[in-house]
Amino acid sequence: xxxxxxxxxxxxxxxxxxxxxxxxxxxxxxxxxxxxxxxxxxxxxxxxxxxxxxxxxxxxxxxxxxxxxxxxxxxxxxxxxxxxxxxxxxxxxxxxxxxxxxxxxxxxxxxxxxxxxxxxxxxxxxxxxxxxxxxxxxxxxxxxxxxxxxxxxxxxxxxxxxxxxxxxxxxxxxxxxxxxxxxxxxxxxxxxxxxxxxxxxxxxxxxxxxxxxx
Length: 214
Known about the structure:
Layout: H1 3-9, E1 15-19, E2 23-25, E3 37-41, H2 48-55, H3 57-69, E4 74-80, E5 86-91, H4 96-106, E6 113-117, H5 122-133, H6 136-139, E7 143-149, E8 152-157, H7 162-172, E9 176-180, E10 183-185, H8 189-192, H9 196-202, H10 206-210
Parallel strand pairs: 5-6, 8-9
Antiparallel strand pairs: 1-3, 2-7, 4-5, 7-8, 9-10
């Protein structure tokens, strides 16, 4: 369950701050920064999700310090709440098993730590973000947001910017996850079947996709 769901369903409880899993930069600067914080209203001080994440907060800090010490191999760490609460560490290294053994010894709850291979380190992803933010199209405000999360560059462009999205996809390959307006790019088959009216509401043009043009 994502933190926003707790906010949506909240009735009684306390406000808490939760680390945003994405490092987001928006053109208006509201979310500019290395880490953003969301304030979420949780259903109860005894909420089991919050309790588990709080229990793992010490391990979270240990993993972040480890990442700072290995900038050429570390990607990121984040919470996964399904099927159970756990910390996921992404590492871009051929020595993944070595890192996993070290991390299992460092944390207090190794059974709630998952180490996965990533294709790009945080340093590489940050380099990609800088390239995007130096593009003329970024200064022309054709982008909605540019961030890093889940081992990829997370980019949203303005509606009707399919050509820009295609160029970004060609340049960064599997290192980027794209959205055009409110929808993913390239569009999955079930989304392609939307009517023109639905597509207009979501801020995209389906005709280009239906003809197979990017």
